[in-house]
Amino acid sequence: MKIEIDRPRCEGHARCNAIVPELFVLDEDGYIDTDGFDVPPALEDDAEVAAASCPERVITVVR
Ligand code: F3S
């Protein structure tokens, strides 16, 4: 499973980071600091919750 992030649309709500901080890293201004990544199997459920939590819908789960 992968996560893709439409980074320019991030508004810094930080809900993703609050749920899985080790995957959804923020920059010094509080915006998401990655365009995407592979999700370790043990974190897939949490990553899906985090994706759904983003009010701007910038996080996409790819299987
Ligand atoms: Fe940005 Fe959404 Fe996370 S707006 S900081 S990707 S909750």
From TrEMBL:
SUPFAM superfamilies per the UniProt record, alphabetical: 4Fe-4S ferredoxins
Pfam family membership, one: Fer4_15
Key words, A-Z: 3Fe-4S, Electron transport, Iron, Iron-sulfur, Metal-binding, Transport
Cofactor(s) this protein requires: [3Fe-4S] cluster
Iron found in the keyword field: yes
Molecular function terms from GO: 3 iron, 4 sulfur cluster binding; metal ion binding
Name of the protein: Ferredoxin
Biological source species: Streptomyces mexicanus
